[in-house]
Specification:
The complex is a heterotrimer. Chain A is 24% helix and 27% strand. Chain A has three helices and nine strands. The N and C termini of chain A lie far apart (54 Å). Chain B is of the alpha+beta class. In chain B, a hairpin with a 2-residue loop joins strand 11 and strand 12. The radius of gyration of chain B is 20 Å and the shape is elongated. Classes of the chains: A alpha+beta, B alpha+beta, C alpha+beta. Chains in contact: A-B, A-C. At the A-C interface, strand 3 and strand 5 of A face strand 3, strand 4, helix 3, strand 6 and strand 8 of C. Chain C: It comes from Potamilus streckersoni.
Chain lengths: 271, 290, 284
Amino acid sequence: MPTDSRRIAGPESSTNPYSFCTEKPRHDLLKNGKRQDGRKENNLRPIFLKAGVVSQARGSAYIEQNETKVICAVYGPREVVRKEDFSMKGLLTCEFKFAIFSCRERRQHQQDIEEKDYSVQLLEALEPAVCLDKFPKAQMNIYVTVLQNDGSALAAAITCASVAMADSGIEMYDLVAGCAVRVAGKNLLMDPCNQEEYKPEDETGLTNSGSVTVGLMPSLQQVSAISSKGEIEFELVKQAVAKCVDVCTQLYPVLQQALVKSVSERQNEEG
Amino acid sequence: MVDVLLSDAEKTFIIHGIQDNLRDDGRGCEDYRHMEIETDVVSSTSGSAKVRLANTEILVGVKAELGEPSSGKPDKGRLEFFVDCSANATPEFEGRGGEDLALEISNMLTRAYDCPKCLDLGKLCVIKGQQCWVLYVDILLLECGGNLFDAASVAVKAALYNTCIPTVTVSQDEGHVDIELSDDPFDVQHLDVTSAPCIVTLSKIGHSHVVDASQKEEACCLARLMMGVTEKGTVTALKKEGSGSLDPSSVEEMMETGKRVGQALNKSLMEVLCLEEQKGKKKEKTGFLR
Amino acid sequence: MYSSSKPAETAKISVRAARPLEYYRKFLEKDVRPDGRELGEFRPTILNIGCISTAEGSALVKLGNTTVMCGIKAEFATPKTEEPSNGYLVPNVELSPLCSPMFRPGPPGEQAQVLSHFVNEVLNQSCCVRKEDLCIKTGKLVWVLYCDILCLDYDGNAPDACILSLLAALKSTMLPAVKYNEETEKPETDSVKTEPLHILSNPVSSTFAIFDDHLLFVDPTVQEESLATGTVTIVTNDNDLCLVQKPGGSPVTADQMNTCFERAFSRSKEVLRLIDEILHSIER
């Protein structure tokens, strides 16, 4: 790695202590119809969602799904700096970052490929929901940081970013709710936590093993983001998408509530 | 994506045509354009292929090198994709212009190939946790004529089919490990690519969807669904792309089409590749002369 | 955004936006700040320790609106040959574009670099963690503690928030128990047992802003920072002085410095009491 004079440098290389664990715990995804944390297949984790958390931002939101914690801030509309980016439609940019301490493995300072991939997916999930023609020649910047990743980070980020966007007062067609599902054999586990998430390196020997994430605009009933990992049979993909769509629709009131709360809080402050 | 400029009238013309299952080049909604595949085009690589899909031209080279396996998968070889958008293809790619597109293509391919059953990477392991074969798959975009993802995935599959990995023997004495490379140039291993995925891109245009969109059709399309489909019809990767959104029911329809088309594409690709191999050295080489 | 219809309210807002300096002077004549604080008063400090379970130690600090999170990740490394029994402490402060419109994406800016060096200096000078304590096997294996401090909301006075979050995070750090296997020359990590880190002293930072070349007030907000003609940062280490930073700006008299020192030591007591309280409440 090239040395970076702008940061305090540590030793040249270091390794994760947990890769030297003498016994590696093995987990069954489902035991007697129950998951490790006691949930049933269809149960989601409790969601805490709050809008208006960053005082300096135009709009912001924070979401917690048990141990998955994501914060998002929206800035703009700002002037477009580069001439090539000029357009009669507003420009949306998105930066997705895992905090360095957010995962079991230490993340790096620079955006890695996974984070760049998530940035693009998040952007494409939000673009259809924002009235971009309302702010021509300008850009809106969305910054998302995952403070702790305990699975379904992209889904949580989609929900969080759409609420932050709405909190900023930018005109939108609809909110976007995100939901993830883990496919394992014939089972569909909603809102997987980190241990349940699909990792290509552990071989379960199942024909169907993967995960699907969906972003839905609930009142328009339009899918704005869809992505999957791992090899899954066709019928199961269909089922997984349908289930995610269902769950996203159920999440809608949670998003609305968070926004209503932040608006009334703001009114109290001013009045 | 690489843009062409279209007037509103031209767009309407294309959209209406597609509604009647008639596209501006005379195809139906589920038809691919004419595709030419040639393998073994670059002799300095371990495997290579060139695909021409109408005006889209893609060259893929696979280089096999010995390297370290990743810590998560100590008993597997590695597969790395790198996409280069040459400025020859379009002036937009000059400088860093093609970087975003290149990253998107390589991410999609990585995701599509990132499942244990697509490609047997266990065969590429030399010494567990220490040495393995790393396949560097370099994808070069030579010309853009729409539907880059599908063409790239076909070219990658063809190049992997063509890849020869030298046989190595590992000998161990007193904790000292020796790796010996076979001298015989014909003593090589081939990869089994039968269950490797192809990417099928479905573009939503108007109320219908089409496969293998041309550049003009891409300009009319706001939302695309990309799928990695194997010969068995399983899905290895899904992605919505573009600034539009999709109805849940049309997502389902598009996936149905994608599966059907993907299976057919995989099948005919394997047939073509087998035919190419049978011809062997006797085949006529076109290369880049057309 | 401001829909208030009262004329007095509107006037107040416009003076504040158009002539912030006058606005502040009017308040300071009465020895009070626009947000109702006295000159020597810190903003309400909220502390949450151990909020990130993927990190070995973590803490969230809120100083008014300013929010800072510190997470500590421990990893194995080989020690330097010149210091075979010393571990590493690697602090880095990140002022991400998320926390304020002032910061841009990309590599750390000037302010973030200055803060990182400040935190590093405090860690080295105060010796709150002995680097020898981080040794697992002399010359072979030591701990490296990556202390990453992430700003989530920048409303001024980052140094104080950073040092506080760092200290709280260090105090909550639990390192997994490790045995060094002499035969295989490889460490063996226990997946269940953990050991706390020894903290030898408690550095606490207090920042003062200089206003109109003579007035000093503590814990400036981002607006106060932009109006200030200089700052002084004092880091105490229990009953000793650890570090004083005064990067240029208006000069300060010896008397004024003395009042600052007094306030810094009393702040140190307040903060340490707060940390103890929170740590006790977690243990229970």
